[in-house]
Amino acid sequence: MITRESRVAAAAAVRSFVTSVVTSVAVTSVAAMALVVGVGTAGVGVAGVGMVGGGLFAAGPAAAQSGPTAGPMADQSGPVAGQTAGQDRRQNEPGQFDFYVLALSWSPSYCEAAAERRVGRESEGRPDPQCGERPFSFVVHGLWPQYERGFPEYCQVPAPRLNREIVSGMLDLMPSPRLVFNQWDKHGICSGLGARGYFEAVRKARAVVKIPDAYLEPERTLLVTPDEVEEAFVKANPGLDREAVAVACNRNRLTEVRICLTRELGFRACPEVDRRACRRDRLSMPPVRGG
Prior knowledge:
Blueprint: H1 4-41, E1 49-52, E2 55-58, E3 99-106, H2 107-118, E4 138-146, H3 164-169, H4 177-191, H5 194-208, E5 222-224, H6 226-236, E6 245-250, E7 253-261, H7 271-275, E8 283-285
Antiparallel strand pairs: 1-2, 3-4, 3-7, 5-8, 6-7
Helix pairs in contact: 4-5
């Protein structure tokens, strides 16, 4: 026979067992939450687990990106939040830069590419005056202020308006009014020189560089390597080193030769510009129109 005392003892045993189980589950849950919080704080992601308002929830792979080292934005550095990697502290302050790049565009390549883009769209816009009847070889694309890493651009928006007299006075070197306006807006303001001073610097910089004879008025398409072109410019310009000149290309055409100059317009090395140079084995230089 089950006595009253035995029933009381059995009930007490059951309560003790239930209490121990609940306590064990609670301790385990707290430990698991502490582990998630601790690992996340340390900057190491835990895939599939997250915390919202103190509760646990299922999360996707993106939840694993936590802490300062996770995700593609982690490489961005600089004194201002959101700066791109390596951005100069003087970014876009007019007159604050380290050197210039004189970009000389091979006009026949530009005009061939422009003609290809116009196929089937002849009625869209007016033709570029650079690509008219007058023959051009190397023309000035621009004189670009540079930092040792990176470059400024659009240092004042909107830019001060250009005097039409200045524009027309540059068409012998930069044979398109639109090109002159664009270079002033994007690069010229950053020189800190003012419009007249900047375009005088463009003219002086172009006078510093001698174009090799082979590239003055070629009558047929030239097949060249970037090394050959760089070496030709070095030989034609005493004091110019290979580290101060870089060739740019577009698909199979040579598009530009870029020469690095000090602020006083002397030749100087520019490793970052050289690293971005064209690496193709063989390039074409279309002939000068009318050649």
